[in-house]
Each structure stands twice: as C-alpha cells, then as structure tokens.
Structures
1.
Amino acid sequence: MFEEYKNHDIAVYAGYLKDDTKLMQSASGGVATALASYVLEQGGYVVGVAYTPDLHNAEYIIIHDQSELYKLKGSKYIDTQKGTIYKDVKQLLSEGELVLFTGTPCTVAALHKMVGRPENLISCELICHGPTLPKVHQDFIATLERKEKSKIIDFSVRHKKHEWQPSYICAKFKNGAIYEKPLFETDYGYAFMMLGKEGCYKCQFRGDNRTGDIMVGDFWGATENDEFWNKCGVSVIFAETERGNELVKKIEDFQLFESDFERAVEQNPMIIRPKDKEVKTDLFKQLLFEKGLHYATIHTYSKKKRIKYFLEKILPNGVVSAVKKIKK
Ligand SMILES: Cc1cc2nc3c(=O)[nH]c(=O)nc-3n(C[C@H](O)[C@H](O)[C@H](O)COP(=O)(O)OP(=O)(O)OC[C@H]3O[C@@H](n4cnc5c(N)ncnc54)[C@H](O)[C@@H]3O)c2cc1C
Ligand code: SF4
C-alpha cells in the first residue's frame, strides 16, 4: 500500500513534548512548538498562524521571542490572511536570518516558489484537511458573545479538556465565564467538515507533491498499545529533506520515536488525498451567507440528526438522553 509515495520522506516519526503542561497547550504532540522553540533559541525567526487581536480572523505572523510562542499554539481552522508575509520572509532571508516557516502545504509551496530553497530557510507544512471560511468562525463567536453578553478574550478549537481526544471548543469571556463543548458537537465542528475553500477539494499539495522540509500532523490511529502513545497528544512527523531531518533530531524536550509511512497514513488520508465535497456543501454555503451559521447547520442536517435536534428543543432537559438509554 502507498508504494508510490513511500520514497518521498527520509524518515517518519511519532512523538510528543516531554512536559505535560506544555503538551496540553498544543494541538497534537506539540512538535510545531518544539521546532519553533529550537529555532528561536538559535536567534532565528518563526512564521506561523495566530488569531488577530480581535479574534475574528487568523493571520500569518512572525515571532522572534519565546514569550510570543503561545500565539501560534493550537490549530486555527479558518482560512488565514497572508498579508505581506512572503515579502517579509524574503527580506529576513536576504539579511541572512534563520527562518522557520510553518504553514499549510499550499502556503509553503508558494513561499518556495518565491524564494527558492536558501540554506537559512526551513519549511514545515501541516497535514491539511483544508480550513473552513472565516464567516463560520465570526458567526460562532458573535452568537456566543450575544448569549453571554460579554466579549471573548481567548478562543481555541483544539482545547484538550482532559486529554487529546475529543477536541473541545473553549471560549473564555471577559466576565470570567467559560464555554466548553466537544468540537464536533458544535455548529463550528459541523461547518469545518461541511464547508471548505473551493480549491481545497482539488488540493494538489499531497502525496509526492509536498514541498516542505518537514510535515507535521496528528498521529491519528495511535493507541495505548503503541510505545509512542501519550493520552495528551501524539504528533506525526515526516522528514522530507536532510535539512528537515537534522532539525527534527536536534529538538530538545521532545520524545521522538521512529515510525513508518504506512502506519502514519492508515488513519490520516489527508496526507495523500484531498477531502471530498459533501452533497449539501453548496446549500450550506448559501444558507450560511443568507441566514447565518446555526440556520445553515440545522437545515443541512441529516434527517436523523434533525429529528434529534428538534426533540431536544421541545422536550424537557434529559428526556432525549433518557429515551436513548431505554433504547439501548
Ligand atoms: C485547517 C487545518 C486542517 C488540518 N487537518 C489535519 C488533518 O487532516 N490531519 C492531521 O493530522 N493534522 C491536521 N492539521 C494539523 C493539526 O491540527 C495540528 O495543527 C498539527 O498537528 C500541529 O500540532 P502541534 O501540536 O505540533 O502544534 P502546536 O504546538 O499546537 O502549534 C500549532 C502550529 O500550527 C500552526 N497553525 C495553526 N493554525 C494554522 C493554520 N490555519 N494554517 C497554518 N498553520 C497553522 C501554528 O503556526 C503552529 O505552528 C490541520 C491543521 C489545520 C490548521
Ligand atoms: S487543503 Fe490544500 S489548498 Fe486547501 S489550505 Fe490545505 S494545502 Fe491549501
């Protein structure tokens, strides 16, 4: 299986940050944080994605200090503003600065097209299912803020409440309130699976077309029977070039295990193929812009999900779950 892609990578690893507190703040095993931390220690610059200060969008930023690393932690599941990032990185590279660029595979490919592969650049791509549209994120945040009558000051779609899985949405409000719900039980999680950017359904930057020095993601399919298991999160790491492999082997405070391509891809198809468009994607998008996120969600639910949703709305608290228990 996967023979045609196997020779692309020099090595495949699994691993996680040794410090559990830091690991719990990262989306998966924290390898992106470990790589960034190492490059900052060498006096280099790190490019990654942070939420904008108003939390309404996500953008590429450059950091040069460990104190800013928290901004990059955690996956932002929305299309990201590029601003002047390619130009700024080109400038740093021309001044001889060491740069680690972390981004989606298409962004990494665009950067390499612009600047080539100078020795002071290391690129790290994320395995990419494709983001959803900022409108989803903005509607979700606005609804929460309206209900709570308070501004959100911190937001994550990959919050580890107890452990790595399931991912929670966590929103912290100015008034001290906290909203927490498993991502895939929310309108946001539904939209992430239902609606991507048009180009993402035909994404080329997979399999052999990956252009980074390193690719990282979640080691989906890892279980407690694996020696590299950690309930707080496990990263999968593909060293695509010698430069990438050298850097991965240098990172400290990170527990690294050798793995193999087949095992890593088994439960993570986005490494080799783009996601499929859902039958109701276009309808969802239309309703999202006409009527908002929640309306689009409940009006594109499957029949079974819709019945459950409306029963939960009209029946007193607890009745639906009691019925479910009786059925079992
Ligand atoms: C839209 C999207 C889809 C993804 N789909 C998959 C998938 O199908 N399978 C899989 O295994 N992994 C996927 N990932 C990657 C995964 O969610 C983690 O981001 C990755 O494993 C890094 O985790 P970490 O613990 O090493 O990173 P952390 O230590 O938490 O650091 C987060 C890193 O992610 C970067 N980042 C955050 N949001 C974005 C963004 N929107 N675009 C570019 N870079 C970003 C930050 O700059 C930082 O480098 C996806 C990520 C995104 C953003
Ligand atoms: S799915 Fe492909 S095109 Fe879409 S953001 Fe990811 S890498 Fe880019």
2.
Amino acid sequence: MSGVRHIHLFVCLTLFGLMSGCVTAPVAPLTERNHGYGQSEDEQKLIRRANQFETELLAKGLVLDDDTVTTYVQRVGQELVPTVTDGAVAIRFHVLRDPLVNAFALPNGGIYLNVGLLARLENEAQLAHVIGHEIAHVVQRHGLQQHHSRKATIIAAHIADVALFGTSIAYLPALGALASYSQEAESESDRLAIGYMVSAGYSLQGAEQLFKLLQEVNQRESIWGSVYSSHPDNAQRASETRSILAGRYSNVGSGRINARDYQQIRERIVLENLRLKLNIHQYALAVKAAEHDLALAPASPWLHYYRGEAYRLMAEDPSGAAREYAWIQDEKLNDELVERYRQLRTVHLDKARQSYRQGLSQDRNFAMAHRGLGLVAYAEGDGQTASNELNQYLNLGREIHDRRYINNILGRIHP
Ligand SMILES: [Zn+2]
C-alpha cells in the first residue's frame, strides 16, 4: 500500500507541483474503525458510477438470470466476506454473461464473475480464491486508491479486437475506469483471499490449482489487464501465492474442496459459456472448450451438441471462422484464409454430424441432435435426410423455440 502512496505522491509532485489538496489521506480498509466509507466526494462519485454501471449491465442482459447458479455463488461469497465494520457496504455477487476469463469488483460492493472464468473452475475451493480476491478489492477500497493514483489505462487499446467480434464487450472501457488496480493491490488481494479461505474452512489447494488452470488460458480468451489473463504478471502472482502458502499458512490443515458442490452449477455454466462463444463466432474456441469438458463429462449429450454446432457454424460461416483464426493467431485476415475455410466445409460438416451422433448415442431421445443432423443434411443438399431429422426434432422436442425457423427450412425442402 505504501507503494501506491509513493506513486501518488510522485505523480502529484511531477505533474502539479506541491498543490494543496493533492496529497490525500491514506485509504483505510473497511475492516478498520472510522474508515469513513462513502464520505469523500471522490468515493461518492465512484459509488454513483458503479451503481449506474450495474444498472446498465442488467438492462443490457449481461447479468446471468439463473437462480441455481446465482444462489450458489451468493452462498459461497457471503461465507467469505470478513466482518466489515458497520456493514458499510453490502457485498453482492453476480454472474456476468461474458465468455472472457475475468472477474471484477466495483467500489460499491458489486462483484461479478464471468461465465468464462467459472467454466474453467473445477471446485468450490478454487472459486473461493477468486471470490476472496474480489472481496479484498472492496474491503481494501482499491477503487478509491486507484482513483487517487490514476495512471493512463491501457485497456482501451485492446477493446477493438474484441469489438470486431460484435460482442457485448462494450462494457469494458467503462469497467477500466472503475475496476483496474495496481499490481500492489492485486498482490494484496491474492494474499487476503488466502486468509478469507482459511477463515471459511477451504482447502488452500484451491488457490494453487487456480493459478495452474489460469496458465492454460489462451491470451485471447482473457483480456489484457485482467487479473485472470496469462500475461507475465500471472506467473509472478502464482509464485507469490506459492510462497505465502509455504510460509505463513504451511501449518493450516486440510479444508474443504467441495468439488461435487461445484458440479451442481458447472454443467449449466459450461453450456452457457459455449452458447456465448458461439454467439460471438468463437467456433474454434468453442470446440476446444467443449472437448475440454467432454473429457470430464463424456456422457453429456449437450456438450456433443455444442461441439457439433461449432463445427456446423464453422462450415456455414467460413469468413467468421477465418476471422477467428486470424484473431487467435494474430495474423491478417485475407481472402486466402477465408478460402481455406470454404474448402474445409465438407470436413467440418462431417465433424458436426459425428458430434450430433455421439450426442444421440448418449441419449436416444435427445431432440437437439436431430436438429443438428437435419441442418447438416440440409447444408449438404440431402433433402430427404434433412426432412426426416428435422421432423424428429419437432416431434421430440418439448419446448421448441425455433419452430418457425425449422418450418421455414422444411418448407423450402418440400415447396
Ligand atoms: Zn484483482
């Protein structure tokens, strides 16, 4: 924390000279008495902005509306919140419908966990470290600290890539101003998260596992400046965490991991993550995610289905597939690349068919697989098979949301 103040002081001296009002009082954590949360004009402004930001997230459909998931995350979260003086701020937990691997905490106590991050986790102890880290940002008032020592943010420069995919990522620039913290603040949050985990009885293995999992995250699935991206700072955080575990906490006994509890929400989260990826034309990344999850849950017909969807859409949208490839590889998108995907059309349709069939082999009455098989046949010009499969889909499915679309296709097969 003293580092942050030094930077602040340095900025003040360099930019403005010794102006009065530039040197601010240190920010007291909410666990201390007389913290004065929400009393300064600066903090009130931050809280107002955060409230407004949250309203927009909700209005734009970015907050996951799934009671099972939300209730679970809130339960885990509340158990980790340390005793906050006077209940100064109500810390609340939400899940954000965004496949980016990220989580953030706002100065008003709103904590958001992205679907993309939750889909990576395997147990509750790992989640406890993520949540604990975000709680620490609120408790230590890192938002206000950062506001006092604001340096130029680099996030804006990296938004364009993501925006190219037409996603709802429009919230990131606003978020940068509310929830980007110094390296010292990130380290402090990592450290405090371990303390919160111990108090709540979690196994510290969760913290270690978390950093291992995050090393596997593709840079593109995260964001620069995100604490959960695989940029070099992450390696440093991992090693800091390891030394904390080996030092002060080496004598802590085994705690709970709660892998089975996490499974209750994992499948829902994983499927939502795949839907979100497909929505923003991340076909190859969806295949990769589906295969990762199929290794853990090979009997899930839905995972087979979404892998099939990823291949089918890759075949039907060669430009989108080429764009994704160029984006991941940091290459230029050109006609040649699109042509390469056009030529792979048959291969991708075939892979899609195989995936749908695997889904059916897990559940003979799995309607979605018939939908997929029908659409593949239609794409291949096999009207007879398309019509059989799509009719089976309409007959088997309980709630068909795209009946009109499917009937439209059937109409084109039998005019
Ligand atoms: Zn953080």
